[in-house]
Amino acid sequence: MGEQAHTAVRGGGPLRSGRTRRGALGALAAGGAAALLVAGTAVPAQAGQSGADGRHGQHRGERYVALGDSYTSGPGIPDQVDANCARSNRNYPSVASWVLRPASFKDVSCGGATTVHMWQQQGTNPPQLDALDKRTTLVTVGIGGNDIGFGEIVGTCTRLSFTDPYGNPCTKQYTAGGTDQLAARIADTAPKIEKVIDAIHDRAPRARVYVVGYPVIVPESGKGCWPYVQLAEGDVPYMRDTGKRLNAMLRDVARDNRARFVDTYTPTIGHDVCQAPDTRWVEPLQPTSPAAPYHPNAKGEAAMAGALLRTIWRHGHGH
């Protein structure tokens, strides 16, 4: 979510070849993110439809805009098509768009974005909400992590882990005085997310809005994997609970503001930062697959795309 060193641009735009489309679908299938075949020609049939053509056809008139922070933009994942925002053409909006085949697609997600950047310019990039108009029919937004200080939290917990690797120094830091500072930050972010959703509805009144949650980072159970991942054993449960609390807030705000929540946490369990390189979908402080530290790699973005597609297909065109 935080600002990351930008990788060189290696392509001028989204890869649209059949080979790339097949690769994206294959990644989804291999990751268990969606029941898509490697050949890219079949998806499970839905009621009243007959396989891929039915589902794809449902969205061919779609005008899709993707908003969000670096968990949406995909820093470090080849190909980086916007170095200013560390944006990949293999992030979850791009992968989802290859499947949906919308009439138009704009991805304005940007690494380091907070809810403020929905309305304010970020570097040379205009406010993200400027990408919307009255013709927009589908909006995804993944935001909130930087509002609670994700980069600072990771940095603090990493540094403190060396002082007491088997204790809970980061938990003590953020709950000193009997107040859970991170829980308070999440509560304070809720009205900001509500304002973002309201602004999306105002600018794109026809659009279905999907609030995309954050995937697994630390293991769903246990004490982590010190020293391979530099989080103290006693802090792993606190970090896990904080991530779940953030997702619960996003789910509740989406529900109360005519939006759908996309759960990317549940389908990524078992692919956390402590897993082997070929199993994990989020990278540690020293990535072994192209990605920013503590961010999804290409498989993780494909898994998030799968969660988004399942949610879209489950709910169809209604709110």
Explain what you see.
The chain has 9 helices and 7 strands, in the order H-H-E-H-E-E-H-E-E-H-H-H-E-H-E-H. Strand 6 (208-212), helix 8 (236-256) and strand 7 (260-262) form a beta-alpha-beta unit. It is 35% helix and 9% strand. The protein is globular and about 55 Å long. The protein has a 5-stranded parallel β-sheet, sandwiched between helices. It has a two-stranded antiparallel sheet with strand order 2-3. It has helices spanning 18-30, 52-58, 70-73, 92-100, 150-161, 169-174, 181-203, 236-256, 298-315, and strands spanning 63-68, 80-82, 87-88, 104-107, 138-142, 208-212, 260-262. The protein has one domain: SGNH hydrolase (Rossmann fold, 3-Layer(aba) Sandwich), CATH 3.40.50.1110. By secondary structure, it is an alpha/beta fold.
Fold blueprint:
Layout: H1 18-30, H2 52-58, E1 63-68, H3 70-73, E2 80-82, E3 87-88, H4 92-100, E4 104-107, E5 138-142, H5 150-161, H6 169-174, H7 181-203, E6 208-212, H8 236-256, E7 260-262, H9 298-315
Parallel strand pairs: 1-4, 1-5, 5-6, 6-7
Antiparallel strand pairs: 2-3
Helix pairs in contact: 1-9, 4-9, 7-8
- Total number of β-strand segments? 7
CA-CA gap between termini: 28 Å
Return the domain count. 1
How would a textbook summarize the main sheet? 5 strands, parallel
Provide the low-confidence segments as ranges: 2-27, 29-57
| Named CATH architecture | 3-Layer(aba) Sandwich
Number of helices: 9
The SSE string, one letter per element, is HHEHEEHEEHHHEHEH
- The proportion of residues forming helix, as a percent range, comes to 25-40%
Rg, alpha carbons: 19 Å
Strand content: 5-15%
* Secondary-structure class: alpha/beta
What would CATH call the class?
Alpha Beta
Give the rounded overall mean pLDDT: 85
CATH names the topology as Rossmann fold
Q: Order of strands across the widest beta sheet?
A: 4-1-5-6-7
Could you name the CATH homologous superfamily? SGNH hydrolase
Broad shape = globular
